[in-house]
What does this fold into?
Amino acid sequence: MRVTGNYFSQAFVNQVNSLSGRQQRLQNEISTGQRISAPEDDPAAVQRTLDLQANQKAVTQYGNNIATLQTRVTSSFNAITAVKTVSDRAGEIATLADGTRSPDDLKTYATEVTQMIKQAVQSMNGKDGDSYLFGGTQTNQPPFVMTTDADGNVTGVTYQGNSSVADKEIASGVTVTADVPGANTSGTGAHGVITDSRTGADFFNHLISLQNHLLAGDSSAVQTTDAPALRSDENNLISQISNNGGVQTQLETAQTSNTKNSTDLTQMVSTQADADITDTIVQLNQAQYAYQAALQSGAGIMQKSLLDYLP
Amino acid sequence: MGARSLQAQQTAVEVAGQNLANVNNPAYARQRVQIQTSTTVQTTLGQQGTGVQVTAIQQVRNALLDNQVTGEMSVGGYWNSQQSGLQSAQVGLGEYIDSTSGTATSTDGATSGIADDLSGLFSAFQGVATSPESLTQRQLLMSNAQTLASRLNQTSANLADVKTTLNQSLDGNVKDANQLLSDIAGLNKSIADAEAPGGSQANDLRDLRQSKLESLSNLINFTSSTGDNGAVNITVDGNQLVSDSSVTDTLQSYDAGGGQMLIRTATGGTPLNLTGGQMKGTIDARDGALATLQSGLDTLASQLITQVNAVHGAGYGMNGTTGAKFFNGSDASDISVNSALVSDPSLVQAAGAPGASGDNSVALALAQLADAPQAGLGNQTFSESYDQTVAGLGYALNNANTQVTDSGKVQDMLSQQRDSVSGVSIDEEMTNLIGFQKAYAASAKLITTIDTMLDTVLNMKV
It folds into this structure.
């Protein structure tokens, strides 16, 4: 084959261009650590990576949701246990206030009960951020409103929330009901913490009744009416605490699987998008050798012609 | 005889000089002197030679290779213009993979493309669903929604710019092609004149015409036929554009409606059915992958507007307001977030019932749109549909890249083959030069010898 000046230089330039293009691509892969960047690089992998990254973002958001709910459920737990402590002491007082106590003793107990009601209302009006914990979906106002008479005795506690609660999503298609309403007299849905028509709980009214009986020195009414009523309230609170524990366990399980999911997705994105650094470096070295060899041999050949040897 | 030989060798040296001078001219085909013995004379001893004469200066060309190169130019032109059009579209889309971006929290605001923004919107809906009474979450939702809307607007504008640029390049191509047509017709005339009976082959004019034909083929695929007088006639899609030395019709770009610039001849009204060349590549890139990309984005945006508004409209804001739109607009070019919601995020209708600020049922339904297959998007989710749109462009560009490489290789191979026939080799010309120089010296020696012989004769003393 006849090889001419143009032929040789063109072939040389093409070869060197292709080798430097290859070096540039490999160098770029090593410096970014990514095999693909633009859609043209590997359309199928780009599509899968974008899909996976959308999943990743969703999983991150579910993780945020879980963390938010954990804080909220812990706040609820603390509030309910505080009310439970009140319930325990109220039960004690109901037992202690029998016929052997003097009216003055009973009045002292009544004062303590009044304080306890105020304390329990305060706990039940607890907030998580801007949001009241026990108002159902009515979270922008204190769920319980207390009225007192001139002597400071509690005359009534009314619930101004509702009985519906919001479902929150903690994984794709998985929702959890983290909240409980303060009162539910509808007979359906989540049980109320203080008042619930199904368990017969009506803690605040029972406490007020206890307070009033003690004030009136009616120890037999305390024994016959208030003590059993308070026991059913206590049972309701215990079931609330165990229910809350169940939600916490559910959130923890969701968090564990969320973390695992996130790790898996990171690995899958990496499989699609990341460069195999070792392999890429080896390829780059090969390309560099070829480039050097092409330059060296090409430069040697191109310099020589018959002209160099003519006298 | 000596003088004729001197003349012949000198011509040969000049041709070698011309070859050497054009060694780097890619359009040039090397030339050769045709030498033959001059007419013999009849003597009593028989036929006696009278030396040498130059009969022609010929160029070394292979018509088959020339045609193949011309044909391949239109394939190369087609894919090159597709590649550059789609690359602009890819830049306009601005969707690049950053494998670290997914691990960052979606609420950090730094996003890299529409895919990211889309996930950001749905994450923000989740955020509002989890804390429906939080104004911070609502503000974040507004900010993410605005980012998505403005990114869609920006991308849509970028792609519209790419389309305009492609149309402009079509206009430029038409101007260039018309210039080439008139050049070729002019060269046809010059060549016919120079090669008129009795004339010799117009080597340099033919070189020039061949390079013009290749440039034209790069722009538009044509069929050509050679006339008896050496003229090249050019036909595109059955319309004769160059006949002999005249341009019979020219190309014209026109708006076929809706900004679709197409190519027709000046006298014919219908668009030409092009088969290759840059013009066809530009049109295919514009009406193919770019149009698909644009309509994919518009469908995505309009579905997003419809679906989000349908769910959002039925909800209630923190103060019991209802019926407000979330997004305004109808497609990617004009999608925007309802400005009333932006200025007061408490109006975002997250609740399913009035007056219950802790109710999140509508926000949750909005968040769950992320995973819901949309009938309007071929039963894909928003993300899947967008990712497929991106991949569609990727496939088209990837294919164009491969084709450009392939056709480049074929072009290289053909032009190397042609170079091996027509190209100038310095070594070869130098060798010829030395040969002709030696022959020239020898012919001069012949003249000196005869001169000496004549002197001898004249100085003879009787």
